């Protein structure tokens, strides 16, 4: 039964024109989302419109039957879920932007590029860094950073750039799967209170296997070339290390709020935003503009004071990925609407009752490779199937890493196709899909072995 409805005022619209029309609207809207690379229309636009139309139809039908409150209660429930996700991500994006503005990521990139490593060593280094940075930073930012390294070193070597980008996408998605902060899907599961913060880390070994198997096989195809080292020199801006420390403190605050105070994690994140805003005030008040300093030297100003433009936290908030945040709104409201109509109950019955949770959760990974994993995971959370903790960890794993099988299956893959246009392509990624799928199934097998205690003898 959909959220907010009761047996007395809930209408089953799955076989009515309302249900069919709503399904068609969602499919058409998501078709535009998947075609974003070709139409260049931001993905939030079609789903925002679809969400409004779907809930408009639902509201009209329910009002015409005299149920004036049911649709309102249901949509408010969906908006509350979105609001928690929105506020959490807004803080995380602000911190990532602040670290980018303080030259944290650029400094890391230049140090790697300047190391004079071979293509094969760069292949492994960017993979390892993508795997271990994505659990803290989001996998999209991590993938873009590592791709910038690969592009700077690989230049016109199409084979190396293509292989390295595939490796980065797989590593970033795998790394995000074992951390509550690594992917939107893991964040949703954690915020829902289904899996505790520490329990996610039981997916570490399956995630390692998911990345390592395709990485080992692909590494043999990496060209044996030693490119010349780069002499670029970039320094961290003033306060960069403090911003990193404040980000870690913010994560700790969110975990403590959720685990010990039983409050939503986003409250801890918003409290952590205050850390950055207060420190940003300090940076701004102590900023020395070069032209007013007695020893002003235009060529050395940046090196002397750490930065030329004063730190402004609101600039970093403004640079958040607003299209992505609006996209999440549209997706959550669309899927929530289809669930209220009754479709999620039907799908849950077929997948989790008739097929069993193991088959259903493995299928979720394949769906994530075709459709974005966010609507897929939100649908699963809305269904609330009766599963053991082992199966909840399984669906968290498959939804997180399943998107690696196709270049369009994750935000990291789509972004890298644009960043390394012509060198990392859909067809190039598809060529290595069997190897990536091997890692996918191997990670599932490892999960069943190392995390067998979480299954509680529930039927597979």
Quick structural overview:
The protein has 460 residues and is an all-alpha fold.
Basic shape: globular
Instruction: Give the helix/strand class.
Output: mainly alpha
Oligomeric state of this protein: single chain
The total count of helices amounts to: 22
Sheet with most strands = none
The percentage of residues in β strands lies in under 5%
**Tally of DSSP β-strands:** 0
Strand-helix topology:
Elements: H1 17-34, H2 36-39, H3 44-64, H4 70-101, H5 104-113, H6 119-133, H7 139-154, H8 158-176, H9 184-191, H10 204-219, H11 240-259, H12 265-285, H13 301-305, H14 313-318, H15 322-341, H16 343-355, H17 357-370, H18 373-383, H19 389-401, H20 411-419, H21 426-431, H22 433-450
Helix pairs in contact: 1-3, 1-15, 3-4, 3-15, 4-11, 4-12, 4-15, 5-7, 6-7, 6-8, 6-10, 7-8, 7-20, 8-10, 9-18, 10-22, 11-12, 15-18, 16-17, 16-18, 17-18, 17-19, 18-19, 19-22
Can you tell me about this structure?
68% of the residues lie in helices and 0% in strands. It has 460 residues and is mainly alpha-helical. The chain has 22 helices and no strands. The chain has one domain. The protein has helices at 17-34, 36-39, 44-64, 70-101, 104-113, 119-133, 139-154, 158-176, 184-191, 204-219, 240-259, 265-285, 301-305, 313-318, 322-341, 343-355, 357-370, 373-383, 389-401, 411-419, 426-431, 433-450.
